[in-house]
Amino acid sequence: MLTRVERDAAACQRCDLYKHATQTVFGAGPVGAKLMLVGEQPGDQEDKAGEPFVGPAGRLLREALVEAGIPIDAVYLTNAVKHFKWKPAGKRRLHERPNREEILACRLWFDEEVRLVKPGAIIALGATAASVVLGSGPKVLRDRGKLFPSPLAPIVTLTVHPSSILRAPDAAARATARRLFVKDLGAIAKRQFPGR
User: Fold this and answer.
1) Sequence-distant (≥ 6) Cβ neighbours of residue 25 within 8 angstroms
2) How many Cβ atoms are within 10 Å of 80's Cβ, its own excluded?
3) Which tens digit of pLDDT belongs to each residue from 153-188?
4) Among 69, 88, 179, 183, fewest CB within 10 Å belongs to which?
5) pTM tops 0.90, yes or no
6) Overall domain count for the chain
7) Which domain holds residue 172?
């Protein structure tokens, strides 16, 4: 079933983002995952590879999961928006935040992923993902690590997107942000992966 939805999403033209993206980047991971991580959208490297979280932020995320004691093979990785939105800057493609219409156009695919994966817990990474998973009320920096009641999964929470750690102004700020991020992931690890 998930394969069929992924195939359908690959042909998605529900908004205009498909016109400039290389491809749809669908989620990846096991059905029945203990944890689903939801980002904003694929980045430049993800758009080229067709896989979520394979660029610099994805590498940081995977390292943080290991530090937190979360096995990557028990995690489903996805994004709220399935196409890379960007603007040209010379030879580079710079990330642009998706707008409300683009986010809503992709909601169908996210809902199908949740329905079919049936994750034990969901962590929204960053503000866009938090708005999709939890609505407009929760704020990332104020509410990170809090648990929210949700029909989507037994455990639902939010934290920063790993790209925000990479954008920290200096090495000390990056180290602090990374430590707090691992702590947020670790709190879920204790619930979902006891004894690790």
Assistant:
1) 42, 46, 47, 50, 51, 52, 79, 82, 83, 84
2) 24
3) 999 999 999 999 999 999 999 999 999 999 999 999
4) 88
5) yes
6) 1
7) 2-192
